[in-house]
Amino acid sequence: QVSISIIEARQLVGLNMDPVVCVEVGEEKKYTSMKESTNCPYYNEYFVFDFHVPPDVMFDKIIKLSVIHSKNLLRSGTLVGSFKMDVGTVYTQPEHQFYHKWAILSDPEDLTAGLKGYLKCDIAVVGKGD
């Protein structure tokens, strides 16, 4: 089980932002609510992803947090920046979690573009028997 809390974002790059956070674990996607006209949205939203696969398969899954600037959820928004890590990285942390950590958002297609903002989150991974 992977549980992720999206707490807030800061210093998002862009004007007239209506940011939404897309939380992906492997193939599954979930979205926060949209916050209007802010570069420092506060979400405090909690997501749980349940998987029934062997640990080695699970640890290779990628956790991806993306901030999307969206005026209208019906058409696709613009990617502000994203952050990725694998489930195994979280599992090797003390108590199998990152608590209140700031993820650095960058443009996956242009790493020289610099920071796109920060996303404060908690990520925890719980396996059978933990």
From TrEMBL:
UniProt KW Transmembrane keyword: yes
Among PROSITE patterns, the record links this protein to: C2
Name the chain's protein: OTOF protein
Name the PANTHER family for this protein: FER-1-LIKE (PTHR12546), OTOFERLIN (PTHR12546:SF32)
Q: How does it sit in the membrane?
A: Single-pass membrane protein
Q: Name one GO molecular function term.
A: calcium ion binding
What compartments host this protein?
Membrane
- Offer one Pfam family short name for this entry: C2
- SMART domains, alphabetized: C2 (SM00239), FerI (SM01202)
Look up and give the organism this protein is from: Bucco capensis (collared puffbird)
Q: Which residues form the C2 domain?
A: 1-103
Report the principal subcellular site.
membrane
Gene Ontology, cellular component aspect: presynaptic active zone membrane; synaptic vesicle membrane
**What's a single GO BP term from this record?**
synaptic vesicle priming
Superkingdom, taxonomy of origin:
Eukaryota
* Record has Transmembrane helix as a keyword: yes
Keywords in alphabetical order: Membrane, Repeat, Transmembrane, Transmembrane helix
Q: What is the lineage of its organism?
A: Eukaryota, Metazoa, Chordata, Craniata, Vertebrata
| Xref: InterPro entries | C2_dom (IPR000008), C2_domain_sf (IPR035892), C2B_Ferlin (IPR037720), FerIin_dom (IPR012968), Ferlin (IPR037721)
